[in-house]
UniProtKB/TrEMBL annotation, chains A, B:
InterPro entries: A-crystallin/Hsp20_dom, HSP20-like_chaperone, Small_HSP
Domain SHSP residues, every copy: 23-131
TM spans (from-to): none
Name of the protein described by the UniProt record: Hsp20/alpha crystallin family protein
SUPFAM superfamilies found in the cross-reference section: HSP20-like chaperones
Highest taxon of the lineage: Bacteria
PROSITE patterns in the record: SHSP
Pfam families: HSP20
Gene3D superfamilies reported in the protein's UniProt record: 2.60.40.790
Similarity remark: Belongs to the small heat shock protein (HSP20) family.
């Protein structure tokens, strides 16, 4: 007997979830690259439209945390761009010197350069013998 | 009898696909917002790290196409950021005046502003009666 009421409730709850999904901002997880240039590790993070003033970078021994935000577009007709606050903690791919990070923000890309604790000594690859591991 | 050979072949093909997936760049579909400011429609596209010189914008009556590229990071240790060429064709949410687009690229966000064919006349919402539609 209560089934129509329950179905109606369920329908209303689904509608509410859909409305909440529509109104909440798209989650904001900026894409990151780690690159290596022998003496440094570089972190690059895509943060288009984020003010330098809103960015915070914190480093502990093993990880670096980047936080920031950008305002949501107003009078949105169709929206895909994430907005609001983001916070990402990334683990260093290899050990870096504490407090060696240097950050810059250019064309919406945040680059942070860390000194490696164990810089790589690069070896030119020409005329080197090839070693193969047996299976 | 041929089954071990087939299984081995299948395994090799799977491996090859995995290697190709790893080496191909992350697909590049910049997120887009459409906003409305009464007289204009604005398209905003997240294109961090893309040079203005590499951007191309083309408008036909119903759609606008944006293309561009950014180079892949070199000596990548861990990569999430898309790279290479992108091309997106977006349909105008409502009619715009042909050739009215004005583009700017700021902090990695491409903004293109189009004049609406039918500008909205905004009405202040205070003291307006509320109408409700019956079910």
């Amino acid at each position: 007997m209560n089934e129509p009421v329950l179905a109606r409730l369920h329908h209303l709850m689904t509608l509410r979830e859909e409305v909440e999904t529509l109104s909440s901002p798209v989650p904001w997880t900026p894409a990151a690259d780690w690159t290596d240039d022998d003496a440094h590790l570089c972190l690059q993070l895509d943060v288009p439209g984020v003010d330098a003033e809103s960015l915070e970078v914190q480093e502990d021994g093993e990880t670096v945390t980047v936080a920031g935000q950008r305002p949501a577009s107003e009078r949105l007709l169709r929206g895909e761009r994430p907005s609001g606050i983001f916070r990402r903690t990334l683990t260093f791919p290899e050990p870096v010197r504490p407090q060696s990070g240097q950050a810059s923000l250019v064309h919406g890309v945040l680059t942070i350069r860390f000194e490696k604790r164990h810089p790589t000594i690069s070896v030119p690859s020409s005329d080197l013998g090839r070693e193969e591991q047996g299976e």
